[in-house]
Amino acid sequence: MEDKKETFLLIDGNAILYRAFYALPPLTTKKGEIINAVYGFLLVLFKVIKEFRPKFLAVTFDFPAPTFREKIFKEYKAQRPKMPEDLTSQIPHLKKILKSFGIKIYEKEGYEADDLIGSIAEIIKKEKKNIEVIIVTGDLDVLQLVNASVKVYLLKRGIKETTIYDKNLVKEKLGILPRQVPDFKALFGDPSDNIPGVLGIGKKTASLLLEKFKNLEELYKGLERGTDKIPQSIKKNLLKGREKVFFSRELILINKDALKRQEFSFEECNFKNLNQKKGGEIMKSYGFLSLVKRLPEVLNKETSNKRQSIQQSLI
Question: Total structural domains in the chain?
Fold first, then answer.
């Protein structure tokens, strides 16, 4: 009988906060501070805690400074509209609530939340064989991290519709393996991040190319040998865009060395350390009374039968 795995919940703070902001109507405190995204984030947080009954929990955030990607490519995400002030102003409130519970927050200058998630997942992979990582996000780029012990709990629309991606579902939905995601997106580009792709190549063509050649290196070796059997028009564009496509992959790749081992602590992420009393008091100050009433049920550390059935369905 296989040993039951413990769960480490890794939450992409920016991605969930952003989705909650646009999913919920305006909500303000007695002081008139808009707080809808924080409320929505907590709804998601409570939901995944109840579903997965984690042993460990951490939240990552983008650092409010240029990342290494912006330093090597100034146009990275340049076309995105600036984060609304009504959303930006909520980040400190969310961090205040998370810290009051004792929930560990990770952020680091020069890196995005995804890089910290990837780094923590890599540390867990090397040191804790009995831990299953569940990444909670709304960002498809994180699918590149999926493996036998890492799954992605993806918010698809708003904060209610979700899908749990394992390696089989990634293959089913995208036609590629998780490790091929950076090569895949580099071929057709990503307008949302302003990442250039190869002219004339869409998702279907990119998927077919990777099914045949596995990665960009093998694809271009095939082009050089002349044994590729690729239509001339596509071949021409691939050769012309070679430098661009490898550069795009560099931007898409999640940096798994962003967080050094000495910067991470399993004990600081231990779910048993959560301070229900202090967290509840801070939530009351924001007027989240209905959520406070749910705390005893949500923060119950005992593993539920529901959690066991969910885990078994994912194996």
Answer: 2
